[in-house]
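Input.
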Amino acid sequence: MTVALIVACEVGFWVLLAAGLAVRYLLKWRRISVALLLSEPLLEVVLFVVTAIDLKNGAEPSWEHGLAALYIGFTVAYGHYTIRRLDGHAAHRLAGGPRPTGPPRYGMARARHEGRLWLRTVLAAAVACALLQAAIWYVGDGNTESLRSFQWVALRAAAIHGVVALTYALWPKKAPASALPARDPQHVPDLTVGRTGQDEQQVR
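Output.
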């Protein structure tokens, strides 16, 4: 049941997001759009409550409960970020707004961007670990091995993402030559200045 609820929450997240953006930019109903987008966190609340009730009713802690905690943590950390980026694209395509700027691709700007994403992953791992620890305390002396294993999954995910983000700072990705800004023409030496042209030599 928990897995089905996670799938339903994921589908509900995208349905509410699409409905909110469509209502905002196609129908111009801004208040209804805000209400739809603000209802997104309710999905995580429902998932958390159902998971807690499942454990309270004596369900054996399993990977399903661990997966629910990871999903809630990811949504808390990346949900608003996802909504903000898609809102920019919807404003551009549906309302004639400016084209949203993509993330930087090269140099230390890219490294800083990756670092900010890593901090979101750390937040996701922290939320997931906190929920799992609360479940472990709630279960008490029962079998909580699966819950503890998902705590390690969350920590490993944050650690791996941290290593990947660090590589962008240690070895910044260089822009290709075609992407480099052109030099000011006045700083480019004119190799033809001071030379006698071929046509001029022929005239002489």
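The two ends are 95 Å apart (CA to CA).
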